[in-house]
Amino acid sequence: MSYAYLFKYIIIGDTGVGKSCLLLQFTDKRFQPVHDLTIGVEFGARMITIDNKPIKLQIWDTVKNPSDPLPGPNRGAAGALLVRETFNHLASWLEDARQHANANMTIMLIGNKSDLAHRRAVTTEEGEQFAKEHGLIFMEASAKTAQNVEEAFIKTAATIYTKIQDGVFDVSNESYGIKVGYGGIPGPSGGRDGSSSQGGGCCN
């Protein structure tokens, strides 16, 4: 199916927070309670619609330690889903993502497993405050019940789309994690940040 834009996402966070389960719930609409630990990189894709335009989301889920550099497939993303249960390593993940991405990457902080309220380590208010302090979007979700899973992925995409309309991105430069398809609007030679259109593509 053709698309107006392709947005590349990365899913990051500690092992066991439910990154792969969120991806599976969004792409396949199912929950797999026993999920093999991701080895290397997992990939998923799904079409959504924003402003009557078909948008393809290309989503990469990688296992790594917060101190390790991001692997090649995880660089140059338009959006990142930072998944957490606690605040452990959260600042490290955020710093790592921003170090290897453009300054305008949209980051959604997801407090997963909202269905397990009795095991909550971080309150909603604490999550909202962290997101506000670091310029993130915040949402609580549950890969098990599917609560807010769809909304988290789509809200991230809607924010990216708005930035495109506002001229924030040079969409001719695929290193931003955005690829223009049929019906998309090619960007100018330089985006609002003055970047050149020169750059390697990372979305296929």
Automatic annotation (TrEMBL):
SMART domains in alphabetical order: RAB, RAS, RHO
Any one GO molecular function term: GTP binding
Stored SUPFAM superfamilies: P-loop containing nucleoside triphosphate hydrolases (SSF52540)
Keywords: GTP-binding, Lipoprotein, Membrane, Nucleotide-binding, Prenylation
Function: Intracellular vesicle trafficking and protein transport.
Protein name: GTP-binding protein yptV4
Location, primary (coarse class): membrane
Family recorded in the similarity comment: Belongs to the small GTPase superfamily. Rab family.
Pfam families for this protein: Ras (PF00071)
InterPro entries linked to this entry: P-loop_NTPase, Rab_GTPases_membrane_traffic, Small_GTPase
Subcellular location: Cell membrane
Membrane topology reported for the UniProt record: Lipid-anchor
Transmembrane segments: none
Matching PANTHER family: DRAB11-RELATED
GO cellular component: plasma membrane
Coiled coil: none
